[in-house]
Amino acid sequence: MTQPAITTNALTKRFGDFIATNAITFEVAPGEIFGFLGANGAGKTTAMRMLCGLLKPSSGEARVAGFDIYTQTEKIKQRIGYMSQKFSLYEDLTVKENIRFYAGIYGLSNSQIREKTAGLLEKLRMEDEADKLVSALPLGWKQKLSFSIAVIHDPTIVFLDEPTGGVDPITRRHFWDLIYESASRGVTIFVTTHYMDEAEYCNRISIMVDGKIRALDTPAALKQQFGAASMNDVFLQLARAKS
């Protein structure tokens, strides 16, 4: 059997007396679109930062792309892509300069950088914008560019932290087309969001409440389990049960 793309066991992060992520346990299959849902402050970003090797856990275990998050963080970073909720772009650099900069950070050779830059600009139909500052781009274009840069080095797993925050519903739906395209190539997608409707786009989802995973299954199974018409109804039931 193929090993899971991500696996965690009782993964916990404490900040003093505050438990941000409380003993979470789950697995993500290769090529799966896994939604990590919850309200703002539920612990989603903390969990993602631990999995990316950016934050050391307080306790528990986890492996990403087969590597241990305590001792093999550099190997994890080589195999993942990451897009933050701020799109991770430098506003004072041009489109082309952003692509080249991040391609270099990801370790691509000069010839690969030239090839990837040309291919990405053509794919995004941004040849005419190549020398424009990113700050001059519409929000939707920044979003697509940031995601495309996050996968420019062909990672096996991509972490997306609130990638559709602050954009309109149509732009959000177009962004999910990019996610589907990557998943169709076998890339594992780990996406955090507080938009409950986006759960419908995922293969499976977990719902975080106050640092704990309160539900984990396919969207259809969770709606059936909670007798709910939508994922938002599921979330509201979980929130009420907490209080």
UniProtKB/TrEMBL annotation:
| Matching SUPFAM superfamilies | P-loop containing nucleoside triphosphate hydrolases
Residues in domain ABC transporter? 6-235
The record ties this protein, via InterPro entries, to: AAA+_ATPase (IPR003593), ABC_transporter-like_ATP-bd (IPR003439), P-loop_NTPase (IPR027417)
Molecular function as annotated in GO:
ATP binding
Pfam families for this protein: ABC_tran
Q: Which key words are in the record? A: ATP-binding, Nucleotide-binding
Identify this protein by name.
ABC transporter ATP-binding protein
